[in-house]
Structure formats: structure tokens, C-alpha cells
Specification:
Bound molecules: NADP nicotinamide-adenine-dinucleotide phosphate
Distance between the termini: 72 Å
Mean pLDDT: 97
Low-confidence stretches: none
Structural class: alpha/beta
Number of helices: 15
Helix content: 25-40%
Shape: globular
């Protein structure tokens, strides 16, 4: 079995303790990864201090070159990385390949953004006190950025943090999910091969509740960028003192279908929206509101499509999705479905569990307090809800603790703008599912879906701060 070391203070290190990594589909132990001790963590912070001093003074073009090089190396290793992602996360291989291609592009976005970190010149004498002054500001890196990442996109969500942090001139202490650490280890190898200063990144592996305590309690760390569940996000925010914190959390993303012009395309997009990665996507399509005119036909067609989906071994090309990350997660979802059924919900299709696999599932006759509606299901399940009035449905959608992406199918411009105006979410996607994302857009949520925005240009803003320069008493 393969054993992996951690990258601390410029070197790869073993440990007295190892974490086992399992293939979620087969249940097999596939690797052992060195677990970081408290001493390793303290060394990592010291190393990041050195790395920051080095990286902040690298010219922007050099930081851009490093990121371009990582992108190129990753592109050459697309298949190797895809296999690692599938092996440790259970993601269907075609989606793992897609994730690698997105990460390749995402690195390029950060490389380009490194050259466009924005400043501004102000009009000084807009204020009486500013006469004969000059004012401008630039953005400066924050220092040490701790990046904590989840299991569901073990490559691209790590790139969303490391790449903009480096582009802005920071150093990074990375703590990936201990369920999927191998992808991060391989990615760090590429950053080093591409010429990143050795101390500019450190990789700490360990259980979140332990390492999380070390990170939040360390005053040398300037910012925590976290992607994961709302409960952990809240804990981090409440325990981080004066650190800057950005939170990319979960959702129960809504799709409103007010008009259908292309049935086949819509059904295919809904299958992807609900089932991609077994629904383990933060913007997975969970609540589908359908204009009553279309409800019965939509239910019939989506049910038929769900029954055809290939579920199984994630290494097979034809498979759409395989197991969830663990049997524990599948048991949780099964329990939520049973509870809903007991309270009057109708399971239209699916609902059964086989070890860590949940069948593609559609549910109707929902009550607002059912967990499968009000909480984030994070599995291959969607609820169908008929509606009559467009304006009212926007209020129903907003009656949620979350607000990440929302999708609306309509060809009426007024409805599109009404939705944009009223929906409490980070983005409104007209004529596609809420699961739509490209990596350079400003991405993030409101309410319990988090705060702050990712997408390299926007993450760089979060990971830097304004410093103002004032020239006073000029003879102009
Ligand atoms: P999670 O359980 O919250 O874990 C995320 C990361 O936080 C892991 O590295 C975990 O470490 C660590 N962690 C756990 N407890 C911690 C603590 N007390 N302090 C600091 N770190 C701690 O989430 P997950 O199950 O991996 O991912 C699923 C969640 O992520 C869903 O809610 C999903 O919606 C959300 N998500 C959001 C986005 C977005 O961009 N908005 C994207 C993807 C996923 P260990 O696992 O190693 O213990």
C-alpha cells in the first residue's frame, strides 16, 4: 500500500501516526498518509512566515509564471490526477477528468489575475481637507492564509484557494479533507516542481476538529479561507478572533421552472444538477419548483430519466455516479427520506440504499419543515414542488436558511429581472440549473451559505488588503 508524507517547512516528512484513506466505492484502504503533529503544525506556521517574506517580493510576472507552469504540468497529468480523485472520493471518472480540466483553467485565471491586482487613484480635493494632496491605494497581501477544504472537489476547490493566495503574494497553510488528502499532496508536488518558493506552502494533514483548533487559535495566521459545511463554518467564524474569514458553505439550491421550451435539454440538465457527484455538490439542484402547467409531464419525464441513470463502479466510463463519500452519509440520507415519508411525502422514484449508494431519488408532497427540503441533503435527491404564481414562488424560495445559486427557466425578461432583484442568493442563473458554475465568476453565498467570494480575481481581493498612500502639502 502506498504511503505518503506531509510537506512541512520545505521538506517531505514522515510521522509517528498515519491516517488511512479509503476508496468509498470498494471500501478498501488505498493509502496511508502521515498525520501532522502539533510540532509539525508550529513548524509549518514558522515556515509560512518565511514563505510570505519570499513570495510577497516575487515580481507578479514570476508568480504568474509559476501558476502557468502548474497549470501546464497538471494538464500533462490529467489522467493520473483523475484516477486519484476517483480512487479517493468515489467520483465517476468522467467527472474527475472534468474537475482536472477545470483546475487547469482555474490556475490560468489566477496566473492572469496576478498581473491585475487593482489599485485606484482618488480625487483628493473632493473633500476640502484634500486640497493639494494626492491619494492612491494598492492592494497588499495579507500574510499567511490557512486554507481548509472539503472532500467533494479535492482538486479544484484546493486550487481555488492556493492559486489566488499565491497570486496575491501570500503564503499558504493547506489543510485538505482527511478523506481525500492524496490529490492535495500530488498538487503540492506540482507547485514545487513549477518553482514555488519552498516555504510559500505547507501541507498539514489531520482531523478537522484538531487542526481547526490549532489554526483558529494561531495569531500568526492572518486569514482562514474555508469551504465546507455550515456548522463547521460557523464554528470557525466564532473562534477566529480578529482573523479575516471567508466561508464557502452549503445550500439546498432552488430551480424554478416557469417555462419549458426544450424538454430534452431541460431534463438532461436536471439529471446533471441533481445527480452529478451523487448530489455532493454545494450547488446541487435540490428544490425544483415547477409551474403547475408542466408539473405532471415534468415529473413523468424526469422520473424516466432518473431510472435510466447508470449508477455503479466510478472507474467505468458509462457511470454517472457511484457511492457517496461514506456509508454513514448514505445512512443519514436514508433516514431523512424515511422521516419525510412518515410525515406524508411521496417518494416518486428511488429512495433505497445499498451500502454507500443511494438510488437517484425524487420526492413530492413536501412540508417546509422536512429536512429533505429545509436542510442541505448533499445526496442524489431532489424534491418537486408545483406552484401557480411566479412572484409568490420567489418568496417561497427565499424562505430558506441558504442562498448560493438559484436557477430560473423563463424567456420573459421581466420575470428574469424580478428573480434577479428578489432572490436572496449569490447568483441567479437564467435558463440553466443552479449547479452551473465557471471558475472565474464571483462565486459565494448569503445567509448560511457563507460570506466572501471565490473566483481568482475576487479571491485575490479577499486575500489582500488596501493600503493608502497620501502625499500632503503639494505645490500643485
Ligand atoms: P466538512 O465536514 O465541513 O469538512 C470540510 C473541511 O473542514 C475538512 O477539511 C474537515 O476536516 C474540516 N473540518 C472539520 N471540522 C473542523 C473544525 N472544527 N475546524 C476546522 N476545520 C474542520 O465538509 P465536507 O463534508 O468535507 O464537505 C461538504 C460540505 O462542503 C457541504 O456542506 C457542501 O455544501 C460544502 N461545500 C461548499 C462549497 C462552496 O463553494 N460553497 C463547495 C464544496 C462543498 P476533516 O474532514 O479532515 O476532519
Amino acid at each position: 500500500m502506498e504511503e505518503f508524507q506531509i510537506y512541512i517547512s520545505g521538506e517531505w516528512k514522515s510521522s509517528d501516526h498515519y491516517i488511512s484513506v479509503f476508496n468509498p466505492y470498494t471500501g478498501e484502504e488505498i493509502a496511508r498518509v502521515a498525520e501532522s503533529s502539533r510540532k509539525d503544525f508550529d513548524l509549518a506556521v514558522k515556515s509560512c512566515e518565511l514563505g510570505f517574506k519570499k513570495n510577497r517580493y516575487l515580481p507578479a510576472f514570476q508568480r504568474a509564471e509559476i501558476l502557468h507552469k502548474v497549470s501546464e504540468l497538471l494538464s500533462q497529468k490529467e489522467e493520473e490526477f483523475a484516477q486519484v480523485i476517483t480512487n479517493e472520493s468515489g467520483k465517476a471518472i468522467k467527472y474527475s477528468r472534468g474537475e482536472v480540466r477545470r483546475a487547469v483553467e482555474n490556475l490560468q485565471f489566477s496566473a492572469e489575475a496576478a498581473k491585475h491586482v487593482k489599485g485606484k487613484v482618488l480625487v483628493p480635493d473632493a473633500a476640502k481637507g484634500g486640497i493639494k494632496h494626492k491619494l492612491f491605494y494598492e492592494r497588499f497581501p495579507l500574510g499567511i492564509i490557512a486554507a481548509i477544504t472539503p472532500f467533494n472537489f479535492p482538486l479544484n476547490l484546493v486550487v481555488h484557494k492556493i492559486a489566488p493566495a499565491i497570486a496575491a503574494g501570500n503564503s499558504v497553510l493547506l489543510k485538505p479533507s482527511s478523506l481525500t488528502p492524496i490529490t492535495s499532496i500530488k498538487l503540492i508536488e506540482l507547485f514545487l516542481e513549477a518553482g514555488l518558493p519552498p516555504h510559500a506552502v505547507n501541507l498539514v494533514i489531520g482531523r478537522g476538529d484538531i487542526v481547526g483548533d490549532w489554526i483558529t487559535g494561531n495569531e500568526k495566521i492572518n486569514m482562514i479561507t474555508f469551504t465546507g459545511s455550515p456548522s463547521v463554518g460557523k464554528w470557525i467564524k466564532n473562534n477566529s478572533g480578529m482573523k479575516k474569514v471567508s466561508l464557502e458553505l452549503g445550500a439546498n439550491s432552488p430551480l424554478i421552472i416557469d417555462e419549458i421550451r426544450d424538454w430534452d435539454k431541460l431534463i438532461s440538465r436536471c439529471v446533471t444538477g441533481v445527480l452529478a457527484n451523487g448530489g455532493q455538490v454545494c450547488i446541487s439542484t435540490q428544490r425544483i419548483y415547477i409551474n403547475t402547467t408542466y408539473y405532471d409531464e415534468f415529473k413523468k419525464r424526469l422520473t424516466a430519466a432518473f431510472k435510466k441513470v447508470n449508477v455503479g463502479n466510478p472507474t467505468e466510463e458509462k457511470v454517472e455516479y457511484s457511492s457517496l463519500i461514506s456509508e454513514k452519509e448514505a445512512v443519514r440520507i436514508e433516514a431523512w427520506l424515511k422521516e419525510a415519508e412518515k410525515n406524508g411525502a411521496n417518494i416518486i422514484t428511488g429512495g433505497k440504499r445499498f451500502k454507500s449508494i443511494i438510488e437517484p431519488t425524487l420526492v413530492e408532497d413536501i412540508k417546509p419543515d422536512m429536512k429533505i427540503y429545509s436542510s442541505e441533503i448533499f445526496g442524489p435527491v431532489a424534491v418537486l414542488i408545483p406552484y401557480d404564481n411566479f412572484s409568490d414562488v420567489l418568496d417561497r424560495v427565499n424562505n430558506s436558511q441558504f442562498g448560493l445559486n438559484a436557477g430560473v427557466y423563463t424567456s420573459e425578461i421581466n420575470k428574469a429581472f424580478l428573480a434577479y432583484e428578489k432572490l436572496e442568493s449569490g447568483a441567479v442563473i437564467i435558463n440553466d440549473i443552479p449547479t452551473w458554475r465557471v471558475d472565474h465568476m464571483p462565486y459565494g453565498g448569503v445567509k448560511n451559505s457563507g460570506s466572501g467570494r471565490e473566483g481568482p480575481e475576487f479571491a485575490i481581493e479577499e486575500m489582500s488588503e488596501i493600503k493608502l498612500m497620501v502625499f500632503a502639502d503639494l505645490d500643485t
